[in-house]
Amino acid sequence: xxxEYPLVDSPIIAIATFFWLSYFPVALVSFYxxxxxxxxxxxxxxxxxxxxxxxIFQITTRSATKTPVVKRGILSIINAAHKINFYNxxxxxxxxxxxxxxxxxxxxxxxVVVDKExxxxxxxxxxxxxYEVEHRRHTGKNTSKYWIFHMDDESYxxxxxxxxxxxxxxxxKEVAYEGPIFYPLKFEAASRLTAIAESxxxxxxxxxxxxxxxxxxxxxxxxxxxxxxxVEDKIGWKFGPTLAEDQMFGFKIYKQYGxxxxxxxGGILLEQPPLNIxxxxxxxxxxxxxxxxxxxxxxxxHKIKLxxxxxxxxxxxxxxxxxxxxxxxxxxxxxxxxxxxxxxxxLLIPDNLRSFSFDSLPQLMASIDPVxxxxxxxxxxxxxxxxxxxxxGLFLNLKYSKIGWKKRLMLHLQTLxxxxxxxxxxxxxxFWATLEYSFKKKNAxxxxxxxxxxxxxx
Length: 458
What we know:
Layout: H1 11-22, H2 24-37, E1 54-61, H3 69-83, E2 89-95, H4 100-103, E3 110-113, H5 124-138, E4 146-151, H6 159-171, E5 176-178, E6 181-182, H7 192-197, H8 200-213, E7 225-228, H9 229-235, H10 245-257, E8 262-264, E9 269-270, H11 277-294, H12 300-330, H13 332-337, H14 341-348, H15 351-354, H16 361-366, H17 370-399, H18 405-417, H19 419-443
Parallel strand pairs: 1-2, 1-4, 2-3, 5-8, 6-9
Antiparallel strand pairs: 4-7, 5-7
């Protein structure tokens, strides 16, 4: 007798099932890391104690004059530090724009303008970071007495951030740390789709805890990065024309200082989502292209892990496409033909549940196919983790916003309904970047292609 599996009784369903099953290992690891890292994800056991170090808050920007959110970040540092009576700090704005000297002259910060003639083995942000490393070397701030806290244009510091940084410096033995980033700023000013899509990033940060405490990390944030100044001076940022200099920086620290060199400080940093779909696409594209550029420089075992991670993004796009096609194929025609209560009820409630009774339970148990049930259970678990990833991430982003609870509930509902579309928006850039890199590398005769660096609106 041949057993039929309703999940794979058509080519479309079979393809969708395959792609969803490919996500199962990722879902399993994600679920485990949330359980394992939830207590250290955001540091809560904090108190003010005096440290002998100097903390340098470094904001790297193309132009603070053209990006007003830089001022917001500077003021957040000053206000947060004042609230906890911490004054042993400096603010350094590294910029390409000489106008920033005048723009920021009223604020308590040093403005370091990257010399146009400065030449090094790095591009864009990496070049600016290397310039600041050499600037600190000339001013004697490249010793273990100084710690550098890296921020982006839009980064916003809280008192919890500073207390967590000071605690890690005071009690930890590592030379580099990271912490979680949430995205509540300008949430309502951004495109609704990009704001909701940013929910996946706080969820992914639970994995960052494991990456930093079990190095080398497969990825690293360029912001909310705390590193000892002498370590950054030794490693530098001269990694060639890569778009993912932060990823390479993390690997170099591990290679130079060993497995106990990196940790998690648990201090939150608030940032903002891309304001439109175009910026969202180019931001994600840059991450993937940078990873693919860095691959040849990594050892085989690290390369394999990165390739698998990149493959999950590629398969994620295929899963999103197949899922949307499946929904259209199964539900849309029926709803358009007869959108009545009975039709919707039949779509939502399985046949075996509608006819279920306790008297029929023995017969139902006897007819259960273990393989089919196992397959359905795996798919159910995978789906729940995927849906929960957006819900948990959105909750964390909104937790630090000023949005009222009624609107928060509406946003959670919108996220649930738009999950397939969000999945498509989130994974398409990785899919595109992989194809783009493959074609460009082929045309460049195996050499590392050089890419444009799209600056997103802030």
